[in-house]
Specification:
Blueprint (H helix, E strand, L loop, with lengths): L2 H8 L5 H10 L7 H10 L11 H12 L12
Helix pairs in contact: 2-3
């Protein structure tokens, strides 16, 4: 079992940056993050990306910006 597969087995949510840091710190390997990315892609070990409710938040932010400005406001008072 390769080191990367072992790391992903115990920590399935780790991305390639975290796996690279783990290899550098715990295993004392000089390895590039791009190489780790390619190895993870070749072995189907990529972290799964889940969509969050970010789109709904952006819609709410746009709705807030579209309101009419308050009248009667003067600067400095």
């Amino acid at each position: 079992m390769s080191i990367i597969k072992m790391i992903k087995h115990y920590h399935p949510a780790f991305g390639y940056w975290t796996v690279t840091d783990d290899l550098r710190v715990k295993w004392h390997l000089k390895i590039n993050h791009k190489r780790v990315y390619r190895l993870m892609q070749a072995n189907h070990l990529s972290a799964k990306v889940y969509k969050t409710c970010g789109q709904a938040n952006m819609i709410l932010l746009r709705a807030r910006k579209a309101r009419k400005p308050k009248t009667g406001y003067t600067a400095g008072s």
